Amino acid sequence: MIRKALERYIPAMQWGKTYNKDVFSGDLIAAVIVTIMLIPQSLAYALLAGLPPEMGLYASILPLMAYALFSSSRYLAVGPVAVVSLMTAGALGSMGLQGSEYAAAAIVLAFISGLMLLVMGVFRLGFLANFLSHPVISGFMTAAILLIAASQIKHLLGIQAHGRDMVTLVGSLWQNIGQINPATVFISASSIGFLIWSRKGLKPFLQRFDLGPMLTTILSKTGPLVVVVVTTLATWLFGLNDSGVRIVGTLPQGIPPLTVPDFDAELWGKLGMSAFLISMIGFVESVSVAQTLAARRRQKISPNQELIGLGAANVASALSGGYPVTGGFSRSVVNFDSGARTPAAGAFTAVGILFAALFLTPLLYFLPKATLSSIIIVAVLSLLDFSPLRKAWEYSRPDFAAVAVTILATLVFGVKTGVSAGVVLSLALHLYRTSKPHIAVVGRVPGCEHFRNIHRHDVETCPHLLTIRIDESLYFANSHYLEEYVLDTVADSPELKHVILMCSAVNDIDMSALEALEEINSRLKSAGIKLHMSEVKGPVTDRLKHTGFFDELSGELFLSQHEAFAKLSCN
Amino acid sequence: MIRKALERYIPAMQWGKTYNKDVFSGDLIAAVIVTIMLIPQSLAYALLAGLPPEMGLYASILPLMAYALFSSSRYLAVGPVAVVSLMTAGALGSMGLQGSEYAAAAIVLAFISGLMLLVMGVFRLGFLANFLSHPVISGFMTAAILLIAASQIKHLLGIQAHGRDMVTLVGSLWQNIGQINPATVFISASSIGFLIWSRKGLKPFLQRFDLGPMLTTILSKTGPLVVVVVTTLATWLFGLNDSGVRIVGTLPQGIPPLTVPDFDAELWGKLGMSAFLISMIGFVESVSVAQTLAARRRQKISPNQELIGLGAANVASALSGGYPVTGGFSRSVVNFDSGARTPAAGAFTAVGILFAALFLTPLLYFLPKATLSSIIIVAVLSLLDFSPLRKAWEYSRPDFAAVAVTILATLVFGVKTGVSAGVVLSLALHLYRTSKPHIAVVGRVPGCEHFRNIHRHDVETCPHLLTIRIDESLYFANSHYLEEYVLDTVADSPELKHVILMCSAVNDIDMSALEALEEINSRLKSAGIKLHMSEVKGPVTDRLKHTGFFDELSGELFLSQHEAFAKLSCN
To answer: Terminus of chain A with fewer CB atoms < 10 Å: N or C?
Structure first.
């Protein structure tokens, strides 16, 4: 009984039973490769979030272990990611906090976000993410990537700049462009060049040396690590920090600290909305990656269990000095491709990062910030994709409007406003569309039982009879529209005796629409016209019967439009 | 050209052409009767709004003339009404203003509301009112009536009380219940008694005196005027104001002052939302009354022209020392029943009220406030109707939730929160419902071309073939749901070779849903299952063709489900 309940929420209890040496070796190799990727990334993304680099490492230890225990996805690699780091910077940056207060707020943000995800998981509220439409998500991602890239330019050039929106940021960069530091630019340019080359060129290059497939694969992912090592050594050897190259400096060495989030009601209130958006965006992106990877091996994931996994990871992050985490796209793909078979790969990665936190941090003293920015900028720009804009333009102008507004609002007003504007606009456009539904006057296609739009087809009609097909569920936002449409159409036809509402596409009728139908019925009645209905769906009929509407109806209820036409038409 | 444009916006230019003596006499009699009703009501509603009584008179002169010029409704009687007066009190009461500042803010409120209505009229934005669902409107009206009644109790009992929400109001009344003033209670009780009797009893009583039908009709509406005259005289004769009966006191005498609204950006910002709600609620109620009355004589009104008429009335009110006005329910019915034929009746009423403002105000010095409260309470309680609650409970729980939440939120948190909560909840429930659409697996009804739910009917199916009918348009909020439904259903059927999506009830497919269909197609393809579609509507097919989706589709597009079944089934 208890075991079953536990198994439901802790998938690790199931896959753990069949864990064996084969699976272990797959997981281990994947973990080594992901660790190599994650060490520089975690430092870099912490920098992007405006946090000390070690918080990136802390966010890559306990959260990975917690996620391994609770996740339903076998391949998703969680940890600090670029977009969530940008959102963290956006949420905290506007609060005017400094140093340890800023870091403490990041911990609180992870904690709130974790709690929200857990609550949504337990109460199966994952469907809320469905209201983030595809145009909003893709527009937001495009804008976020541009913002991230812009925010790194100051590190790449070694100048000062500030701002969390595009306008301020670009203006500030422009003002300080004169302070460009040549040594920094040299580090950035060579790092970016090497990283771009290593994405595609490193593996073929290594294959020349006959190192065996496994070592080749592992080494081919070391591009970021190589630039970290090389630029750190160069900075140390040539004393580049004295020439104005900004370095990471002293990082604390040791296991992650145990942190207790600040329980300050005002702070929680201010961070609530940001935590919600971070949770939602992180969840949507994670689930999308996890589903794609699971489908490749005909496996399934449970979105609600993912909420619990991600929630546990964020709570763990908050308790161990980290900041908000979620599933990373490229890291998960590498994890999958490197042969990971279970979430244990994530736990092994955590051990690797722990090792780094214990022993490697002193070696990073001379690591240039420009190197980390180079890693960020190469990672995110490879994800930049403007095709949704073009596709939306071709397919649907409202969807295009949603993408465009989300991108612009995110760039100009920042992350929170951008996503909110996109969601509100998507909903408003959807509601506007359904508030003016497609309504057609239909007639019978000669010789068969089909009824089609009189404006599109050559059909049989009758001057005493008007058949109106409504192509939308009837609810408050469109019930007045229907009322006006019917009464206006009727006013133009003096010979009319019967109006049939053909309801084949009406999936629901709410109370406002019911009132409207009653109104239409009584107005037509007083004009001597009978109102009939045809092809009303079963569940809708059941509910209308219950209200006595059909007793009031001046005409009849026909099962099929054909029946109605046969009985009422003058032909 | 110019004349035509003018005629479009000024309906008076059309009905004015055929104006004659017959129509004039009908309008005049109606105007006399409405004036008799309106004098005490306008004073009383100004009191309800927390304003000096003369502002009620001012709001009943110029606004009526402006409305007569621009309205498309022939019978709607505009002026101060109870619910809008309550909303005015709610909007201004929370701002901590006193005396002339409070009155100035009321004038600004009328001005903003008038501008909003005009803008909505010119840009044909009347459809926005459709988002006020029937449950929200009726819930709000019920709560508003209860709040109005509660707010008048202090005047009826002659005690002090404060509060704009039910809890504060009742608590405050309870605390001060000991200060009840016997003379005031006597005036209230006898006024209320007489008013209730006069609603039904006055006309039959007058008929005994053989005064002729016209005079009888006019006199039968004088109930409120009689209590005003009698209680004013009694207070003066017996010096009841010395016994603690609170009186109206000195009212200014003369034509309405010319007022220029305060152009204070901060004030406008604070009043914007309230002005919008007042405009919307006033508009919805006015149009509903106007439509009902127009239908009785087979006439039509134009909702967008009504926006212009009501907008002009409110701007006129703001320019002549008034406060927000709209169409009144009972007053309009009386206007119609008394024989009004054109909006000129409203203009004649305005002349009557002007006469009152010029000559009658000194006579109202001793008018007890309790008398005005008695008039308000009898007027609003006759409109109280709990039937929407019962009806919604029986018909639809989501609609019931919307009514109940609107009532409770309005009573507890006030007017603005109440309406907003209702609108947001209605939209959320609608979106939630469409985010989990009805989806059925269907099979063929033996011997015919109909396809029905396999769980409801005894139908033919085939193990290689799964047909899924979706009873909702596909958009971002339900596209993931569909994706999961299809993939989950497929995962349970190892023999499956073909999946058909039957789209007879799909009126639209947005870009998120298109992505989901592409995803379903590619996942099924990789599992060796073909995806087909049937009965896709014309406009939807056209747009999908444009995207090349059908080229990617692993299966076929069938015009009818019958065709698809005939070709793919194993039978």
So the answer is: N
Instruction: Give A479's contacts in chain B (Cβ within 8 Å).
Output: 130, 134
HSE-CB of A12 using CA atoms within 13 angstroms: 15
Query: Which residues of chain A are within 8 Å of residue B295 when distances are taken between CB atoms?
Result: 523, 526
Contacts of B487 in chain A (CB under 8 A): 300
Residue A437: φ, ψ to 5°:
-70, 160
Q: Where are the domains of chain B?
A: 23-383, 392-435, 439-568
Closest CA to A13 of A71, A78, A63: A71
**Element holding B326 (H helix, E strand):** strand B326-327
**What distance in Å separates residue A287's CA from the closest CA in chain B?**
11
Kindly state the helix (H) or strand (E) to which residue A552 belongs, with its residue range. Answer: helix A549-552
Within 8 A by CB and 6+ apart from B420, the residues are B277
How many whole angstroms separate alpha carbon B423 and alpha carbon B416? Answer: 11
The reply to whether residue A295 touches residue B505, judged by beta carbons under 8 angstroms, is: no
Kindly identify which residue of chain B lies nearest to residue A541, measuring between CA atoms. Answer: B395
Give the span between the Cα atoms of A473 and A470, in whole angstroms. Answer: 8
Side-chain half-sphere exposure of A210, counting CA atoms within 13 A = 0
Q: Are A294 and A74 in contact (CB under 8 A)?
A: yes
What DSSP letter does each residue of A170-220 carry, written as one string?
Answer: HHHHHHTGGG--HHHHHHHHHHHHHHHHHHHHHHHHHHTT---HHHHHHHH
Reduced to 3 states (helix: H, G, I; strand: E, B; else coil), residue A442 is strand
Strands (E), B63-150: 78-79
* Location of structure tokens 């998960």: A332
Strands B530-534 and B557-558: parallel
| DSSP string computed for A274-336 | HHHHHHHHHHHHHHHHHHHHHHHTT----HHHHHHHHHHHHHHHHHTT----EE-HHHHHHHH
The distance of B303 to chain A (nearest Cα, Å) reads 10
Nearest to B369 by CA among B27, B20, B28, B45: B45
Which architecture characterizes domain B439-568 according to CATH?
2-Layer Sandwich (3.30)
Task: Output the six-digit token pair for B161.
Answer: 């009380």
The b-or-e profile of B13-44 (16+ CB within 10 A means b, else e) is eeeeeeeeeebeebbbbbbbbbbbbbbbbbbb
CB-CB contact of A451 with A459 (8 Å): yes
Q: Can you give the pLDDT of all 571 residues of chain A as single tens digits?
A: 677 777 778 888 888 888 888 889 889 989 998 998 899 999 999 999 999 999 999 999 999 999 999 998 999 999 999 999 999 998 998 888 888 899 999 999 999 999 999 999 999 888 888 888 888 989 999 999 999 999 999 999 999 888 888 899 999 999 998 899 999 999 999 999 999 999 888 889 998 988 888 888 888 888 898 999 999 999 999 999 998 899 988 888 888 988 888 888 889 989 999 999 999 999 999 988 898 888 777 777 888 899 999 999 999 999 999 999 999 988 998 899 888 899 999 999 999 999 999 999 899 999 999 999 999 999 888 888 888 888 888 888 889 999 999 999 999 998 888 888 999 899 888 888 888 888 889 888 887 777 888 887 888 888 899 999 988 889 988 988 898 889 888 877 778 899 999 998 888 899 889 989 998 998 888 888 999 999 888 888 988 988 889 999 999 999 888 889 888 887 5
* Distance (Å, whole) CA B134 – CA B81: 20
Its ipTM equals: 0.79
Three-state SS for B20?
Answer: coil
Of A303, A481, A508, the CB nearest to B433: A508
Q: Give the whole-angstrom CA distance, residue A394 versus residue B183.
A: 76
**Half-sphere exposure (Cβ direction) of A60: Cα atoms closer than 13 Å:** 34
As to burial, measured by CB atoms within 10 angstroms (0-12 exposed, 13-18 middle, 19+ buried), residue B396 is buried
